[in-house]
Amino acid sequence: IHTNGLAAGTLVTDIVVWNVHIHDWGDDSPAAGENDAIGFKAAEYSTRHWVLDSHIHNLGGDSLTAGGNTSTDPARPTFVYYGRNTLYSNKENCFDIKRANDVVISENICHTLVTSASSAGEGIVIHVGAKRVWAIFNTVYNVVLGITTTESDGTYFIGNVVYDISASAFDVRGVTSTVFIVNNTVVNADKCVSTSSGLSVGLDIQNNIFVDCITKTIHFTDSSPQA
């Protein structure tokens, strides 16, 4: 399912996808080339979309996405809500948010992703300048990177349960404003929180429970802020 308006004056609006089962679409084998078989995409010139209570898995791309690498600011999708979905076993991610504004990812279950030819195995990834994205009260497990942002502005990770993660439960890189990591629970991850070089803004890490962080609990690289 792909929503794409024609221009700022002709938006695709008010789409509700509820209780659907999307599966076995595209080549989900890790060695396959990028094939972008996606469950639902809020694309350019679209606003007010909901995907709820759905089961989306074994895809050649991501389960749920918003925006694209080259979307201009006027074309960004806005006001997207992804809630209570179960997503797993894709070649790429459960969620991939790029150049979209005002996105809420809430109460979803995301699991069982590995590194592939076109993905690092992230459960929820927010990047390419996404603005005001909230990942709240999700459960993410058995993936490589749990919840990550590689480039975003106004990013909130609140109340999530993340466990059995082979790399970092939360990974923060290249953002332009403070990332809030608050009230989450992490169990059994190589690192519970990590940053990479180039992070020029702060992290607000409060009131989390971190258990069995195998290598490090919170890992800052040399060029990351230390407070």
Structure overview:
This protein is an all-beta fold. The chain contains no helices and 22 strands. The protein has strands at residues 2-3, 12-18, 21-25, 40-42, 46-52, 55-59, 64-66, 78-83, 86-88, 95-98, 101-106, 109-111, 122-127, 130-136, 139-143, 145-149, 152-158, 161-172, 179-182, 185-195, 203-206, 209-219. It is globular. The model has no long low-confidence stretch (mean pLDDT 92).
Ordered list of secondary-structure elements with their pairings:
Layout: E1 2-3, E2 12-18, E3 21-25, E4 40-42, E5 46-52, E6 55-59, E7 64-66, E8 78-83, E9 86-88, E10 95-98, E11 101-106, E12 109-111, E13 122-127, E14 130-136, E15 139-143, E16 145-149, E17 152-158, E18 161-172, E19 179-182, E20 185-195, E21 203-206, E22 209-219
Parallel strand pairs: 1-4, 2-5, 3-6, 4-7, 5-8, 6-9, 7-10, 8-11, 9-12, 10-13, 11-14, 12-15, 13-16, 14-17, 15-18, 16-18, 17-19, 18-20, 19-21, 20-22
The gyration radius over C-alpha positions equals: 16 Å
Order of helices and strands: EEEEEEEEEEEEEEEEEEEEEE
> What is the number of E strands?
22
Strand content: over 45%
Find the structural class using helix and strand composition. Answer: mainly beta
Number of separate helices: 0
Strand count, sense and barrel status of the largest sheet are:
14 strands, parallel
CA-based shape:
globular
Average pLDDT number: 92
Catalogue the unreliable spans. Answer: none
The percent of residues in helical segments reads: under 10%
Distance between the termini: 42 Å
